[in-house]
Amino acid sequence: MEKNVDLIKIKKHYGGKMMHFCRAQFPTLLEQPNLLFETIQNNFTSNKSLYEDLDVYGRLGEFKDYIYNSAIVQPKEIAPEIADPKQLLAEAGYDLYECQTEEEIQKFKKYYHKHEQLCTFQGNRLNRCHVYFAVKKNVDAIKRSDFTNPERQDEYGTSVISIQFTKDESHTLSIKNRYNHHVNNPDATFSNNLDNINKGLTDSFAKHYGMEQQFVNDFDLTNYVKANDGKYYKYNYEINNIYYCPNNIIIDNFKVKKLSKDKYLLVDYFICDLEKKQFYYYDENIIDSFLDCLPEIEKIEIEKQKDQSKQINLFSKTIKNITINVEKNNKIIGYQNPDLKEIKRAFLRYNRVLKSISLPNLEKIANNFLYKNQALKSISLPNLKVIGSNFLYENKNLEKFYLPMVQKIGNYFLNHNHDVTVVALPNVGEIGKCFLYGNYHTTTVAMPKLEKVKSYFMNFNNKLEKLSLPNAIEIENSFLTHNQKLNSFFAPKLEQVGNSFLTSNKDLTSLFLPDLKKIGMSFLSSNEKLASFIAPNLESIDQDFLTRNQELINLHLPNLKIIGGCFLSQNENLESFEAPNLQAMPFYFLAENKKLKHLDCQQVEEIADHCLSRNTDLATLSIPKVKKIGDRFLAQNNTLTEVSLPNLEQVDECFFHQNASLTDLYVPNLEKMDDSCLSNNPNFRQKTIIKKR
Question: How does DSSP classify residue 340?
Fold first, then answer.
């Protein structure tokens, strides 16, 4: 049986799986020699992983249609009468603006979140492109905060778009998303097809603005870009509108540049000059310290592996050899540097696929180390002492972490690293905010020397059951909020905690903090099981302390002086509260507490609104120093019989309203009372004369 020449070529350039797919799907095109192969090659550069990429993203059916349509090209005519782009975009809800100066471009920067701004705003884009912005007419009503899981085509992402055509003859189009690089393929919004915004818009730009595209982009595939030669190229990275591709190809502003394989090796987004024995950036605007960590190289050896990966060995006079491992597409997956002691900011910040790294003598790491990496499984940093912010931000695969010498850690350490189970930091004394934030599966944390904890420590962790911080002195806001399993917390030296300390913790039953002096808002709010809280030196508490707690029965805080609103509100089982040095009762103090029988607040001089309202079991009450009381004090208490307030001078509305059992009230200094006070008290015997003016 004679072999089909097209299929042989397809197998050579695109792999066996693509060859089998083409044989099954394109029998008609295979009837005409060279038609199928040339159609594919005219649209997709040689790439043996094309079939797998189409398959994994579910695009094989669309690819089939695209190739059939591309095989027979019909001449295209622009309709003689077609509305201008401004009108067509207005029909789609946009206002269109053409930018002819750098100042006009910068006016649109205000629409972009700080970390989602286009590289267009860095300047000089008008040297290479015609730049337009389309802004939704209701843009001010579309808030970034409403889109917690951004998608490229969602309302926010497409509410401000930059439409850019290259200034060469191809007029290659890129439609840039408002999310920029927080979504997939942000520079191919609407699949870089203007007709996907409003039909006829492609021809309209061609007719009215002269932006006639040589190749209209009508096939969108993740990690593929259509260059100005009309072909789709697989790329490893897109940085500043420059695409770094396998096979030593760089696409700069859609122009294809092929590096000689005899002289160069494109590694990640770096160029290795094999003749000059040096690495350098193609784009000088890239901020990455990887090359700063390399010495003067004397020799480069490349070992090719059976799986098409490579091991690059670098040799120099000053240090032992450095090893860089790259996979078949030349993305870095392994790195060893035995003598490196310090790493500056943004080390391999764009690399997503590094799996292992060994830096045995490293002592200091600056910010944004492996910022976008999501594949690291092995890391060895035995002598590391100082870590900057965003260390391994959003790495997904690391499970255990041991840094024996680390003393200081910056913000966002291992942020959203979902699979980390064990973290051991025996010498760390200070950590930044968002430490292990969103790490759902961490079960063990060892930090015996930690003294200061910044905000958002281990929020949304669902597995940690025990935590010991024997030297912690200060904890800032949102400490372990929404932790569902913590049942033991030990911090004997803790003096101060910020807002939302252990809020929504479901399993903690007791808490002993002997040195604690100050508490922020929402301390243990919505903690359902806490039955014992001991803090003998506590002096100050902000609002929402232990609200909605169901188990606490007795609370004794001998040194407490200041508390915020909603203190222990909706605590249904508290029977006794003693705070002999408390100075004032804030609003909703112990409101809706159903079982309170004993209250000792001898030093209180002022009581705010709704205090002790709907407390159904309190029978007697004495607050000897109180002078002023707000609205609805002790309203709807059905068991209170005797009250002594000898220094009370002023009350607001509904004072003792609906107290069914009240018989005696001692208020000798009260001069004025509203008519709503003492209403609906059927058993009240007025033993004390209340003077009304």
Answer: -
If you write DSSP's letter for every residue of 355-388 in order, what string do you get?
A: -EEE-TT--EE-S-TTTT-----EEE-TT--EE-
**Beta-sheet pairing, 620-622 with 400-402:** unpaired
- Other CB atoms within 10 A of residue 358 CB: 16
Whether pLDDT at 257 is above 50: yes
Residue 146 class from Cβ within 10 Å (0-12 exposed, 13-18 middle, 19+ buried)? exposed
Query: How far from the centroid of its chain's Cα atoms is residue 117's Cα?
Result: 16
Instruction: List the one residue out of 152, 390, 108, 354 whose CA is nearest residue 236.
Output: 354
Q: Is 658 left (phi over 0), alpha (psi -120 to 50) or beta?
A: left
pTM score, whole prediction: 0.74
CA 285 – CA 239 distance, rounded (Å): 9
Which residues are bridge partners to 607 per DSSP? 585, 629
- β-strand partners of 386: 364, 408
According to the 3-state scheme, what is the secondary structure of 292-327? HHCCCCCEEEEEECCCCCEEEEEECCCCCCEEEEEC
Q: Measure the CA–CA gap between 131 and 135, rounded to whole angstroms.
A: 13
| pLDDT value at residue 407 | 95
Mean pLDDT of 227-248: 93
| Half-sphere CA count of 31, side-chain side, radius 13 A | 3
Q: CB under 8 Å to 213, separation ≥6 — which residues?
A: 165, 170, 171, 172, 173, 202, 206
Confidence band (pLDDT; 50, 70, 90) for 440?
confident
Q: Which amino acid is it at 459?
A: N
What's the token pair of residue 460?
């949304």
Cα gap 330→350, rounded to integer Å = 14
**Strands in 73-209 per DSSP E:** 94-99, 129-136, 160-166, 173-176
CA distances from 650 to 503, 567, 676, 690 (A): 36, 23, 14, 12
Long-range contacts formed by 175-184: CB under 8 A, 24+ apart: 176/118, 176/120, 177/152, 178/111, 178/112, 178/116, 179/116, 179/150, 179/152, 180/112, 180/116, 180/117, 180/118, 181/116, 181/238, 182/115, 182/116, 182/150, 183/150, 183/151, 183/152, 183/157, 184/152, 184/222
The residues pairing with 136 across neighbouring beta strands, listed in sequence order, are 94
Question: What residues are paired with 164 via a beta bridge?
Answer: 131, 174
Which of 79-88, 270-279, 518-527, 594-603 shows the highest mean pLDDT?
Answer: 270-279
Could you tell me the two tokens for 558?
A: 């001998």
Cα 6-8-10 angle, rounded to 5 deg: 70
What does residue 310 show for φ and ψ, rounded to 5 degrees?
-140, 150
Task: Please choose, from the candidates 208, 130, 136, 116, the residue with its C-alpha nearest in 3D space to the C-alpha of residue 174.
Answer: 130
- Which token pair is 496? 């101060």
Q: Residue 34: CB partners within 8 Å, gap ≥ 6? A: 5, 6
Q: In the block, which residue shows the tokens 């019909």?
A: 74
Answer whether residue 557 shows pLDDT above 70.
Answer: yes
Instruction: Compute how many other C-beta atoms are within 10 angstroms of the C-beta atom of residue 331.
Output: 21
Alpha carbon distance 546, 684 (integer Å): 34
Q: Distance between CA 69 and CA 36 in Å, rounded?
A: 11
Does residue 205 have a pLDDT over 80? yes
What is the spatial distance between Cα 147 and Cα 69, in angstroms, rounded to a whole number?
37
Q: Which two tokens stand for residue 335?
A: 């790195």
Q: What is the mean pLDDT of residues 87-110?
A: 95
